[in-house]
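Hello again,

I reread your note about wanting to compare the complex against the isolated chains. To keep things tidy I'm splitting this into two emails, and this first one only covers the full assembly. Below are the input lines as submitted, including protein chains and any nucleic acid or small-molecule components. They are followed by the predicted structure of everything together. The single-chain runs will come separately.
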Amino acid sequence: MSDLLLHCAQLELRQPDGFVLGPLSLQLKAGKMYGLLGANGAGKSTLLQLLAGLKKPDRGEINLKKQDLSAYTATARARLLAFLSQQQAPTEMTVRQLLHLGLLPHKALWQRDNQSDRASIDRVLVETGLSQQADILLSHLSGGEQQRAHLARVLVQQARLLLLDEPVNHLDIRFQHQLLATLRRSGLCVLASFHDINLAATYCDELVLLQQGQMLAAGAPEQVLQPDLLQQVFGRPCLVDQSPFGGSCRVTFAPEPV
Amino acid sequence: MNSVFRLLLWCCLLAASLLAALQIGAVDVSLSALLQSQADNALQTEIFWQLRLPRVLLAGLAGAALAVCGALLQLLSRNALADPYLFGVVSGAALGATISSLWLPVLALPVAAFAGAVFAILLVLALAQRAARQGIQSISTLLLTGLAVSFFCSAVASLLLYQADSFAANRIMFWLMGSLSRADWPAVQLLCVTLAITLTVCAVGRRQLTALNWSDDMAKSLGVAVQRWRLVLLLLCALLTAVVVAYCGGIGFVGLMIPHLVRLIFGSQVVPLLFGSALCGAIFLIWVDSAARTVLAPQELPLGILTALCGSMFFLLLLSRRSADEY
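Full-complex prediction:
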């Protein structure tokens, strides 16, 4: 029985534009990887922001390691929980400087970065395939490389729970697989939103399907990836079978007749 | 190592500018004669210690303060056009100065101006805070509130001046154009302490500032107490600008221009940017003030006119030499 890292119950948020998320309940266990699926505007980003403490829910509670999320100081929370937002315009800094920022929650104000910090940053640079680009300005890198740099920054933060908003967007296929495998091997608890259902089904232990702010299904990929549910969410008929590699679920959507 | 060398080089430049500026002025004061401290040059000694030295030091400190404020506000607002005068500080100070010279002549001009500046800043922060609670993006709210308060204060000040006698109007107008003729030791001490505190806080919070420069969400998820840091830094900026405006009047363009220049020389990282801005701002204003004292001697040119004049020309030159893709 793996231990419970994050637990939310009857979570609800009403946004000024009329969008309502929830009420929904979710449990994230240590060492497991969770995929968040849903069409555009289903509330994937909003849910991740709520769980990361960036937004306050109107109702319901979020517990991180059996303590209320809002009871944590910002620093204590950042040591347990890292958040990757969707891509943003880069400021003027190198990949290495961005990674050093990941150490922020572990550093007192007057403390300088030491030898072991630099070593751990070098290690993450290798893991994310960014060693060659370490001293290049972010603005000179491609979107995919910038995305990897942000993921590397999240890894440097050494949190127990990673909340990632579309982590593999902009990445080419090789790095999509490499990074998800890195996340799996890390043994951390990960909740990530995906557009690519098959990628999520391959690497995640459990999937969560959202539609218009409501949780439609949650559980093992073969439970969640039901053709009728998927058609309801994505508006296309589909076929679910098994991938020839490892037998994970594979979804193929029927093309729109031209 | 390279950056340390560069910093030392600019420190030397600052020291050289200080020494050179001390020699420039209506009365020749040679440093060697001062060091011998003979009894017969009492007047020179007096001029040097009570007029020349505080004035040159205040020029350096005011330039450094404005440039640091500009750089800090540009970092915090993620807007390359942010400027220390954005928060209605100058208009507020002008309003304070106008009211005091019309109705409260007992109040010294710097005190009244400082009160006006602080009033404007608090008004901006309070209004922006209120708007932010209703779910509006706080940075753009802050900038727009500052703009509105600035226009409001200057409109009221203009209205009062329009009704006032021409002597008072002249006095205020000259002060608004910026001058260091009011320099004295208390001003130097006050500005020095405020600047030192601001730079220390920035150096200590360099990681927090870098994270804030990305986005609020990024800073929050890295464990930065966003609201607290922003409030502290904004208040320090406001205080620094208020002190400068109270003693020196309106000196435009330094806070906007110097950080852009510094980015080309020192790069965009927080610590080099802020300390580089302090150095370059100090050097710039020391030379501009030297020019203001000597170009039309014995008449003195208003400082704000000169900074705006050479600042804008220099800025246009810089922009035309940058390639389009850099922006």
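For quick reference: The domain at 55-313 of chain B is CATH 1.10.3470.10 (ABC transporter involved in vitamin B12 uptake, BtuC).

B.
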